[in-house]
Description:
Blueprint: H1 3-15, H2 18-25, H3 29-43, E1 48-51, E2 54-57, H4 59-83, E3 92-97, H5 102-116, E4 121-126, H6 129-137, E5 143-146, E6 156-171, E7 182-183, E8 192-194, H7 200-211, E9 218-221, H8 225-233, E10 239-242, E11 254-257, E12 259-260, E13 264-273, H9 280-291
Parallel strand pairs: 3-4, 3-5, 7-12, 8-9
Antiparallel strand pairs: 1-2, 5-13, 6-10, 6-11, 6-13
Helix pairs in contact: 1-2, 1-3, 1-4, 2-3
Amino acid sequence: MDTQRIRYFAEVFNSGSFSKAAAACRISQPSLSQQIKKLEDEVGGQLFFRSRDGIKLSELGEKFLPYAYEILKAVHSANDFVNQSSKHIDGKIRIGSIPTIGPFLLPKLIRFIRRKHPKIQYEITENTTNLLIEKLRNGEIDFALLSPPTAIDSDVDHIDLFEDELLITLPLEHVLNQETAISIELLKDEKLIVLPEAHCLTGQIKAFCKAGQIEAKLSFESSQMDTLLGFVELGLGISFTPKIAVGNLSHHKVKFHSVSPSPYTRMIRLIWLRRNIPSITQSAVISCVNEFDLGV
Length: 296
């Protein structure tokens, strides 16, 4: 099976257009269509349907797509191996992260990796867990920084980086700041401010509150932690803040407290697809992450 035809197939899917794919691949549209037809002959059926809304995958195309991405990924890894040596690592790494981790961890992690491999280039994506999983499966990113559990856990290898404590966050004038210890039961009558439902942190907080028999009373939903703490600062409700983010949010007039008697935590994890063979650059990053200490 010709890997170039597979690349054309993936480009048509990614661009949603034969003409755009032809331009990206620098061939004529009739030539690209001919190559796709030859690929369809090889796989035994039509891969695309044309509709008013553009190009759509057929049922066979949807089944073939993950194999196509896997083949292209393997070819990329092989080329990377041939073109690089372990003493001269200068490839590109594509890392995705959820917003409640990336801004607070990625700069430190990349700074640590650059000490050993200063020529590695980075492409950073910030998105919700479900969208990062989709990008990982489609080969659009190499690694994802997130917090388990996720729908892809059985298909990935991972490195557990650390347990991140989630701290009760109160406005300065809140009466509970006078308590020496704050249990989850003391928060039953509070208005809880969280990120939108798509963020895994929201699901984790709601699950924690439910386990403590507390109804999560949503007051506001914001997509930025900085905005969320601004609401807390105004006295519009309380929230939970990842400890990793506290240093970046210290300008807010709020107080942070551990949950008593047992702190509430989430795992921070780096994942990558198990079925992919890591390139030399990816292997170097995995090695550095294994050595990484958040205190660095």
